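Dear colleagues,

As part of the handover before I leave the project, I'm documenting each prediction I ran so the next person doesn't have to rerun anything. This entry is a single chain, and its sequence is reproduced below.
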Amino acid sequence: MERIYIGMGSNLAEPEAQLRSALQALASLPDSRFVDVSAFYQSDSLLPGQPRYTNAVAALDSQLAPLDLLDALQAIETGQGRERLERWGPRTLDLDILLFGDRLIDEPRLKVPHYHMHARAFVLYPLAELAPADLRLADGRLLQDLLAACPFVGLERMPPH
């Protein structure tokens, strides 16, 4: 089993409900065990004019191969109405593999650690709720260093429900 962190986001069709449904789907993945989820956060869209996003990070322990997990996550997205019409466009659900154990993955379909996580407060702060304080990414960067370089701006921690 490897510890995997998955970034979650939605800004369409009741985003909180989309994330909760995705968490149920993650908990039922084969050869995997759901571990925990961060608080939900609201963040501004990367593109102007879109609704705000609801984001979280989930932790799984899994024996699935990286591309098998990616396929399963994309099936969950599709099952929840995800349409890939434009890059960074609005979406019902986005599930991104942020970290996959200690692996560096550089495949055409999958880059781990996630290629832009270092610049995204809506990924780093929820991840920090779940990950060990001294987490070192497979590429050698420390999570604490990434947090220090990425201010908590445009991000709002949502109250628990």
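The first strand starts at residue 2 and ends at 10. The two ends are 30 Å apart (CA to CA).

All the best with the project,
I.
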